[in-house]
Amino acid sequence: MWAKIKYSVSFGHGASCARVFLLLLAFLCGCKDKTDRAVPVEPNIASDEIIRVLLLDDANKCTVILKGAAQISDTNSPLAILPFEPDNSLLITADPNNTYINGNPFTAKKINLHIILPGTFTLENEYRGDLLIIRSDNGSFDLINSITLESYLAGVVGAEMPPYWESAALDTQSIVARTYCLYIKKRFGTNRHWDVRATQSHQVYRGILAESVPVWQSIRRTLGTVLVCENGKDRYDIFPAYYSSICGGHTEDSKNVFGDSFAPLNGVECPYCFKSAKPKFYFWPVAYYSLAEVTKKLMARYPQLEPLEQICDITVTQKTDYGNFARLTMIKLHGTDDKTDFIRGEDFRLCLDPSGTILKSAICEISVDGDKLIFTSGRGFGHGVGLCQCGAEAMARNGKTAQEILNYYFPHSKTINIHEQ
Fold first, then answer.
1. CA-based end-to-end distance of the chain
2. Cβ contact 345:363 at 8 Å
């Protein structure tokens, strides 16, 4: 429970500066003309699960816009209420000893800004929930959005799938995204101060910008629903329910892409995404990289490859052959003086093109021509594991339910409701 106390609260170390800071903010806010701003109100969905989303890491400076009122606390102080007028900005900086908010120091390494509903904060995108500022020993800091699971999902589903798609496709996406988030939190969140990133390295999260009526309706319909698979005799647990945009005709076995192995992630034929995907995304054009550029990118990302010195040639050593196309799963790198090493096909693709917008998938053919590495016959968009989003949309258009879509792309799985366990 957040206590409401007066501005004369003591802040421990740096108390005088912090107290003056709070009083000054209160005075300035009272002098401004009040302006009303319509903010979407979060639907009343009960959720005890909190997700910590990493918005910014290893930063030295940033500006956050607060809309509404906030309560601020750190490990050295009780709470104080900071009333902010619309578009009131906070400049956040740090050094090894202090975190500064508009120049006023706070010694605690963790500061919490609790945004009082219906207030929000903006950092590129507009977000619900609280803002955590966590300072490291070197003086940089991370910004983390602490938000309920379902509100987090509302900012993910609309960012990962068009909100005008069929409701069954949206429901499928909601269940898969919820499952993936909870798996990553359980698997990795206990060892760090955040659970998931806001980028495609986990799931794209755009906050309020991604919200819409169809998305919130999907969140409500699927509330608490997740995928599980058997984990030992008569035991079921969540698994990383991966998904990508266009599998290209067949989803891939997870162990070939991510190195993990789960029965629902062995890969299935997908004749559906071709029916709903735009041709320019289903097939992608020829791409070129110089071997010098390949060498530079690989060694910057994987220092263990430095003994190769210079990449002279590339050989595909493993691929999953699906007949008229194949997904490259293991690449042999040939360096100077006949030195060699190996890298997974998906890691190789994303090392050369972290955006994934040029080399859209590992379904392609690779050849070397002089000092050029050439990618041809490309098809699909994404890693291809788990759910094919365009395939889900095509199935939904054909009248399939979310459960039927999930059963198809994640065989040997079942759905449960986490609120009923």
1. 26
2. no
